[in-house]
């Protein structure tokens, strides 16, 4: 490039020296002559007209300045081209990395958040700005830049599409949770203004007058194994030593609705929501969706028997197995609409319980308080409520609460049995559900919530209690 400019400059300089158009009488020829003549002495005389011999120094200096400026511009443009070439290589690698991340999201769809999408959008916007700058500085058509610009545009469309699809509705669910919590606070504020306050209960407290109402369901998510795993249970571990400790568990049964084989643990509620930091385990074998977790142990009915199993969650090892005396098993007296739940383990403020039936009780509900260390039966209560007519049951502060279906979208808590007094009762508290069948209900004294497994969906409910009546 510089050689071409130098040749052009030399050519212009030669022409400037040869012909100066500003000199009067100047012609295209470098010089001119005329016809000669004889003087008085007979000597031949000739006249020659030479061009202006003044050298055009000013014009040459101007040309030199212009040539220097052109040379500097060429150097700058060459530097830009080199810089943008390196930048294109860097951003091509970034596009490749982002493409791999997007492909991973498409395949798994289980670990992305709104922040992930925002970061992707920021990176794509930055690359888009760079390519726009490249297009404005490089004259003419550049195939590489045009192709890069098209890839960035397609990638942006793909990210927007992924965010809108959101296969597991994680973002929508989290927004819905925030909205529901806001509505709940408004509702609680209205109740406070009306003078019907709900007492604040610390973890493990029974300082109330019993369940008064229940919230709308918070749809946490679909269980991690998918919609086909309709049967199972989930909940939060409760320990009197560390009531605020977080350990969430999800245990979907196999698709036959009988075998407990796999379960998953999360150390926080956020991890559970986002399917993050999960610990998956396998056990052989539990039966039915009546399992519960207490003090880092899972309790369940051993497959094909009337035995109770105690599983250490730290080692995934069954550390104890003991027969529950007289318990019916092999789907003899399971809940209505839910098979194989002959034993329903429960945890409340007082410890570990099991709900079941016996042949002697002719299928009516039997409640036993267990020693969680030895699985010995400490006390037993027999009710007059037929177990196969109940859809599920749970215990709060020693009071059994039984449910039954009203229709495909509503359930009713209709029966109670207070082990503290031995009294039965009839109530009517409506539970909204998202699917037809409730497979399990687990109560956690740490937060006073119900953890419901509803045809594969994990639902969460707040309980509202009446104030304790002082006599």
Automatic annotation (TrEMBL):
Q: Name one GO cellular component term.
A: extracellular space
Coiled-coil region = 145-190
Which top-level group of life is the source organism from? Answer: Eukaryota
Q: Which organism is it from?
A: Eublepharis macularius
Ranges for domain Olfactomedin-like: 205-467
Q: Where in the cell is it found?
A: Secreted
Q: What are the alphabetically sorted keywords of the record? A: Coiled coil, Secreted, Signal
Q: Which InterPro entries match?
A: Olfac-like_dom, Olfactomedin-like_domain
Q: Which residues form the signal peptide?
A: 1-18
Keyword Cell inner membrane recorded: no
Identify this protein by name: Olfactomedin-4
Q: Which GO terms describe its biological process?
A: signal transduction
Q: Does the keyword Transcription apply?
A: no
